[in-house]
Known about the structure:
By secondary structure, the chain is α+β, with helices and mostly antiparallel strands. It folds into 2 domains: 1-57, Alpha-Beta Plaits (2-Layer Sandwich), CATH 3.30.70; 60-370, no CATH class. It contains 15 helices and 13 strands. The protein has helices spanning 15-19, 48-52, 75-80, 86-96, 119-122, 139-147, 158-168, 187-195, 232-238, 273-277, 288-295, 306-312, 326-334, 339-346, 348-362; strands at 25-29, 34-38, 66-72, 100-107, 110-116, 152-156, 174-179, 204-211, 214-219, 223-227, 261-265, 281-285, 299-303. The protein has an 8-stranded mixed beta sheet with strand order 5-4-6-7-11-12-3-13, with helices on both faces. The chain is globular.
Amino acid sequence: MKTVCKKDQCAGCKACVEICSKKAIQIVDSVVAYNAIIDEDKCINCGACHKICQANKLPVQLEPIIWKEGWANDQKIREKASSGGMATAIELAFVNNGGTVCSCSLKNGDFCFSFAHTEKEVIKFTGSKYVKSNPEGIYRKINDKLKKGENVLFVGLPCQVAAVKNFVGDKEKLYTIDLICHGTPSPKILEHFFNDYHLDIRNAQNIKFRVKTKFYLESDKKRFTVPTVVDNYLMTFLDSASYTENCYNCKYAKPERVSDITLGDSWGSELAEDIQRKGVSLVLCQTEKGKALLEQTDLHLLDVDLKRAIQWNHQLNHPSIKPKQRDKFLKEINKGKKFKRCVWISYPKRCTKKFIKTILYKTKITRGGK
C-alpha cells in the first residue's frame, strides 16, 4: 500500500486529493485511522501530494504575542456558543468588514466546509464539532478568492489550517484561526452512536455537541437531547478513546501555533464560577493580522496567566494520550455492536456509575451532572 504520508498518520485534510491532477488518491477511513492511499496505476510520481501534505511539511509555527481570556460582548452569541462565543464574534466582524469566512457546518449528514459572506450565513458555523470534518473542495476555492483580492478568514483545526497554508501559501489576505484540538473521531463513530437511537445523521438539520450541559440534535422529524452526564459519545471523546491514530502524534499540540489566532476553552480560569458557566474562551494571538482581527471585534478580554493556561490545556503542551480502553472500544465498534454496548465492554466500572446517574437524572434528582 503506497500512502502520501506515514501509515495511519493521515489527518484527512484532503489537500492531496485536491492537488492530484490524476485523481489517484483516496482517503480510506478504517475508524482506527485515516490513510491517503495512492493508486499506483494512475500515479505519475510528480510528488505534488507528498509536498503539500501537512504531515510531511509543517508550516511555520509562532509563539503567542497576546494571550487573553474572555467572551463575546453580544450575550446572544455567547449563549448559543459552546464556550465564550469568540469564534462567532470574530467571524461576524469579518464579514461585516467585507470579508469571506470559511468554516465547518453540517450539511446532508456531513460536517463539511463552506463559505459565508453574511451574518446569517456565519451563524451556521456556531458550536463545537467533536468529529472529523471534511475540507474537500475548499482549497482551490480559497485560492481563487485570494487571487481576486478577497479577504478570507479560515477557521478550522490546526492540521486543516496547515493544509490551507501549504496549498495557497501564507498570503497577505488570508487570515487563519485554529481551534485548540484534543483529537477527532471518524464520522463513522458518530453515525454508530446515532444508530442506537434510530436516528439518521443525513436527516439532521442541526447538531450541537455541547449546549452548556446537553448534546442536542434537531432533525426534520424530532428534537433529541442527551444530558452530558449520561452521554456515551462525549465520554469516549473526552477520554481520548475515539480519536484516529494520527491525533496521538499531533505535531500541533504545543504552545507555538500555526495560525494568526488560536481559540479554545479557558480551562483553569480563576474567574468566578457563575461567569465560567456562561462560557469563557481562551485566545492566543500570534501575529499582527490576528491582533487586527481582535481589535475589530466586540469582545470582553481579560488578562490570563499563559503558563497556567498551557498547564490546564494539555493540548497546548502535548498530544492526547491514548487510553488503554481505546483498542477494545474501536474493535467492538468495528464488530458492529451497539455503541452503548461497546462503551460498557470497554468501561464497565464507569458505565455502572453512569447508569446510576441516568436513573437519578430521570427521576429529576440531578440535572446536567449537578
